Amino acid sequence: MKETATQMRVHCxxxxxGLLGPLFAVLMLGGCGDRAAQxxxxxxxxxxxxxxxQKDAAAPKSREEQLVDTRRFLEQDNPELAIQSLKxxxxxxxxxxxxxxxxxxxxxxxxxxDLAVQAIEQMPKPAEPEGDGRWQRRAFEAGNDWLTEAGRLxxxxxxxxxxxxxxxxxxxxxxxRRRLAENLALQGRRFEAxxxxxxxAKRDVITERELFQMQFLRGTVVVDVQKDTGAKxxxxxxxxxxxxxxxxxxxxxEANAMIRPLSDAFPESASVAAFQMRLAHEMGDDQxxxxxxxxxxxxxxxxxxxxxxxxxxxxxxxRDQAAVRCFLxxxxxxxxxxxxxxxxxxxxxxxxxxxxAAIAKQRGQWLTEASVLYLQFGQQPGTADQLMQLASRLxxxxxxxxxxxxxxxxxxxxxxxxQRTLGQSPLSDLMTIDWTQWATEQEAALPDGFQxxxxxxxxxxxxxxxxxxxxxxxxxxxxLASTSSTAFQLVNVAADVGLQFQYDCGSQHEDRTYVYEAxxxxxxxxxxxxxxxxxxxxxxxxxLPFDQGSCHPSVVYRNxxxxxxxxxxxxxxxxxxxxxxxxxxxxxxxxxFPDVLVANLGRNAIFLNQGDGSxxxxxxxxxxxxxxxxxxWSSSIAxxxxxxxxxxxxxxxxxxxxxxxxxxxxxxxxxxxxxxxxRPAADRVFTVRADGRIQPWQxxxxxxxxxxxxxxxxxxxxxxxxxxxVYLTNDGMPNHYWQxxxxxxxxxxxxxxxxxxxDEAASLSxxxxxxxxxxxxxxGLAAGDFDRDGNLDLHVTNYSNQPSDLxxxxxxxxxxxxxxxxxxxxxxFPMVGWGTQSIDVDRDGWLDLVILNGHLxxxxxxxxxxxxxxxxxxGGPDGFRRELSQQSDGYWSQPxxxxxxxxxxxxxxxxxxxxxxxxxAPTALLExxxxxxxxxxxxxxxxxCERDAIGARVEIQIGQQKMVHWVTAGDGLLCxxxxxxxxxxxxxxxxxxxxxxWPTGNISESANVQTNAGYLVIESQDEWFEINRxxxxxxxxxxxx
Length: 1041
Description:
It is a single chain. This protein is an alpha+beta fold. The chain folds into four domains: 178 residues, Alpha Horseshoe (Serine Threonine Protein Phosphatase 5, Tetratricopeptide repeat), CATH 1.25.40; 126 residues, no CATH class; 446 residues, CATH 2.130.10.10; 88 residues, no CATH class. It has 28 helices and 40 strands. β7 and β8 form a beta hairpin. α1 packs across α3 and α2 runs antiparallel to α3. The radius of gyration is 35 Å and the shape is elongated. The termini are far apart.
């Protein structure tokens, strides 16, 4: 009988080792690779082995001598002889730990991993947890390493669990709990790993790195686990970790491709099932969603992701009773989940449980604050003060063991600083505290149900999975599917029409930039001479911040009846002179002429339209002293009626209030100027009184105590309740959503009558933070009804490694994270997004998205992209699809440093065009030449409400189709769009019904409205005035060219 390849290898190695000297020459002549020589040697070796074993049996050796022989055989890579050598020992001492360990090593060397593990599991339990047990310890450690290297993480987990049971709470248990935490992290099961880490924290043996891993268990996987497991291509549970990492990086399609075979291979894994269920829910894969519900393995109810998925679905469906129960189950299992706490707060608030909602909201805010500190620690070591700040937050969150260990780290860090400076440590009084005793007392003092915000599970409706299954498939986007396949054509014609504006940031250094030099200037669309053609207003920099008159003046371009643009700054006035940022266009004094408001680094400016084609600057010192702003960096401004008195309020969005912004710079190698290290500025709001004076308004209580790094703003009646609401994007801090409420006391602090007041409600509404609960670096935003369900939605651009956020409003003021489901997350994840607008490029009735991108600073020396391509997405009932332009002018394929973005119809052909700002290139005018459907354009003028009619809602009925559009203010990042609603209607030649709901409650209505036309609609007037007929405009333009 021929020997196997493994046996031949053993025989060759045994001969070469000199154990069987007479055969050595035979094999060397033939070589171990010579088949005939190998077979001859194998036969001789077999006979020699028998004689050797018989000789050893005739002369018995001691236990120690036999173990020495066995280990020698192992060193010589001869497991077969090692096993033969152990036989008598196993018979004589079958429970000897050392013998069993050597047996396990021998079986592993022979390739019999299962037998090796079986030998380890047969080892007797140490007499005492603190006893020697060294062979058991070594065996369990080796077995874990073997199984991990083989990719058999579940088997390694079981072995480590058995080791922990054997050593119980003894000191030797530390190493096995630590390794079990690493094992679970490799599987992507941070929730289970945290239980082992918490045990280490209680024994004061946890490391700083392990403490860091306990921060937010639903986020990205533990970052310190580097090694891959198993053979290349082998399917094992470490793939779950990789899938979760892909999901955290918004590569959900990749995550889904990983999780499907993993689910098939490990159908019993509750953690795999729970993650697949969540992923299917987020991606909108209803079939997979339903299949998961029907095939849940045992133990899935112990997975927080299972409960969060149900909670999110119930919340979206308006079933808040069941949502509360599922959110409570989630936070009971995982009290680090700030997304769940925010969701719980929203559901409780809608049910009128205000006290519990406030507690849940506070928990979410504290967790968000802690996450910011963790993020800072990940970039550079935290100071003692920062560590103490984190410890304080964890103490408030009912996590005393983590708090105690962070305090100890802070004390050690402060003590080291004291030794270096020979000074007195500010934490010296804390050095004598027994922190283990402190944490024990703190934990004992926590009230029952602390993590549940004082609520009891039994008080809330348990989930009915059957309801989910029967309802899920019915939840489809509202509206008719888009049939448009028209290629988008947005062509840069700026140079052809005389638009030659170039923003100047004023940078004087090639090797460094300051953070204020990176934001770009503002753009406003203003028909300042009321000739019906949209003109343009640009702010500029070029000088020193906070130094009035040192910068380039703003530039005004007049539209020459759609044939081009001409600079008219000298005659029009409106020169700003400050370091310009955003622009707002509004009829501030309600005289029928649009005014210009400019945000600066320093004092802001208001330019009143004189009605003769020129502007007059409002002298803040003499006329409006309240508007003096000498220290803030204002980014954007919005004007709209917030109080309900028919006159506009002025909202000043502020970014930084810190003189260090002029001192700290960024270089190409180091990022020292993260906005988070500067003191944020509080936003401010003013009201225009009936006598024309501008004074601070108290209708947004608490706004002065919420300093934030504010960037973008949109004002609209989002929820169709009370008056106008306000949404603000903040850079690296939670976004704000100020929700209008009927004022209980109609007189505010300035004795002005106010029908409405606004309360900050972003965390309750679900649009404060990103999908992982992080506070992203939010900048631009666009509003529109993206899913055509009759509710106003939001798109928010973010910093790199943070996908855009798409908040779809499902019910009034209940927003749902939908970027993944709607196809935006993966492609926006690597971008630094700035200006964004929602427009219907091809007029098919579905809003499309435009995004400008470009990094904040130039770190190309660190292999980080600086210039980035703009992005154009086609909208439809199934979400957004990236359009890859083939246009010859190259704008869409050329990486750039895009910034502000506005919409207008510059040539009055009915198609929405764009003006795109850039940090280093000339401004682009993107003329829409896309073929497609027809359009209905409306310009609204208020008479009982403010003239700009901000908050008006327009409902369009075409057969069974319904579309809704809103008049908004703010319009996003540093910009102000043309005040015109452009509504794509497909191929409909007329609209059955148009209904305008004015902010006052008045209604204007018209039937059988002809399309491809523009109309002027005046509140309280029955007649609608046709001001544009687009077939004629297109015909004359084609003849002119």
